[in-house]
Amino acid sequence: MKTIKVVAAIIYKENENGERSVFATERGYGDYKGWWEFPGGKIEEGETPKQALKREIMEELDTQIEVGELIDTIEYDYPTFHLSMDCFWCTLVNGNLTLKEHEAAKWLDKDSIDSVDWLPADITLIDRIKKEL
């Protein structure tokens, strides 16, 4: 089975009470159109995962991010490929999170993070993220 290596940005912000919310996007294309995910994409040859994530977020959201700590590497078998996804905590540096490829986006906190239909690989990370929100 083919392995696809990708990166995902768990972009977070804190409110005045120190409570975090994370940025999620709705896929606008492909077999999983309408499902929710953390933004990111494929690592290109010669890129580190952090470089790929910065490039992908600039391409998809016209936003500059700071890539922080690796949360986890998710290994997930979809029907036609194996996904290996490095997931990083990220913060906004500059930009307005302009949707270029996605249908919609939301900031989700610990009370609303389960309100969307997550992609199968992404949902495996939700419980871990909830502990940090």
Q: What is the average per-residue confidence, as pLDDT, rounded to a whole number?
A: 95
User: Termini separation (Å)?
Assistant: 35 Å
Strand content: over 45%
Secondary structure tally: strands:
7
Element order: H for helix, E for strand: EEEEHEEEH
Backbone structural class:
alpha+beta
- Give the CATH architecture: Alpha-Beta Complex
- Measured as a percent range, the helix fraction is 10-25%
Q: How many separate domains make up the residues?
A: 1
Q: What is the CATH H-level superfamily?
A: Nucleoside Triphosphate Pyrophosphohydrolase
What is the 3D shape? globular
**Discrete helix count:** 2
Q: Any idea of the CATH topology?
A: Nucleoside Triphosphate Pyrophosphohydrolase
Main beta sheet: 7 strands, mixed
Please identify the top-level CATH class: Alpha Beta
Cα-atom radius of gyration = 14 Å
Unreliable sequence segments: none
